[in-house]
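Sequence in, structure out. First:
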Amino acid sequence: MKFIKRISKNKIGQKLLGYLVFLITSLTYKSISWTTLNKKNKYKYDKNEPIIFCTWHNRLYCGPYLLPTKELVINALQSSHSDGMMTDVLFKLIDMKIIYVSSKQKGASAFIKMIKSIEKGESIAITPDGPKGPKEIIKEGIIKLAQTTGAPIVPLFWRVKKFKLLNSWDNFIIPYPFSKGVYIFGEPIHIERKISKKKYIELKKSIQNKFNKLTKELEEYNFEKE
């Protein structure tokens, strides 16, 4: 642990850790036997239609690998600080673009950068409960982004049969290799640009309920039926 902390403090060490994390996560992901719960009306991705993909922060381990990065240009938010170089390398190896956000910049700066990416026809991948929670509670950012750009929100969640939960604020999920896994994409959620405050509150509650329903569907999935 001391060795990892030591090398993570410089750029070369960060990059090496990035390659190592990619190797471990990609091999774990590929070893899992995946099943999709999208049996009917599977959403067809249009390269000309940007999408705001959302997954819970605790499901970041496999989330990026399940995204349609071959069909769409997808951006992920990334700190420009040296501590962020590890995930910088990871995202690039997964064929995702990076939107760099400095720790000195305000949230508005990241929001503007995401809008510009969507205007170019590129998609966004974001954790609606990140970066510090509360766990599995959506924030207003994704709603305002969808409202401003017209891009639909598409939730993506997954679960594996065998895993380890970290003692973190989100109970980060570490899947075991060669486990069984399931994933699901929710239906696109379109948000009108102009809505009343009352409707906005109702909409946020509705989106939270849809995310909760999808999460519950995965948690209740019976792997023994396979």
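Second:
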Amino acid sequence: MASAASRRLLKEYSALQKEQSASSPSASLINEVSISPVSQEDLFYWTGVITGIPGGPYEGGCWKIDIRIPNTYPLHPPEIKFITPICHPNIHFKTGEVCLDVLKSHWTAAWTLLSACIAIRALLSDPEIDSPLNIDAANILRCGDTTGYDSLVRYFTNKYARLDR
């Protein structure tokens, strides 16, 4: 007998497959955020890719993510970490841990794995400097040096996450 978490994950996976094969208005999000289970035998471990937002310092970047889903999903959030190093105030540079309220206290069962990953992508262009995991990046923004911050982000994007590497 499948658990509630397994049924929910199977439903999300099925919806993702339909979304990827259809040319719907939200299909472009699939190109910006792509996720799937590592194997069909284990729906509790997924991987994915988040691409940088055009026109910003993350443009041209492609970051691999790791998604671990608890047995209590969707009542409790997944753990999503960046595998590819990324410079961002709310993402720990070494561990890839993400500080985002929807992955912690603001999680509800209405969120899906895809919507959580889309929220992480949105965080790239709208950092929250009051709850940083990368204090150095946050301090640059606190000082108002957006040019310096953008240069630092572009440097690390080019070094670790270029699509054309």
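Remark: The helical segments are 4-21, 27-32, 113-125, 135-142, 146-160.
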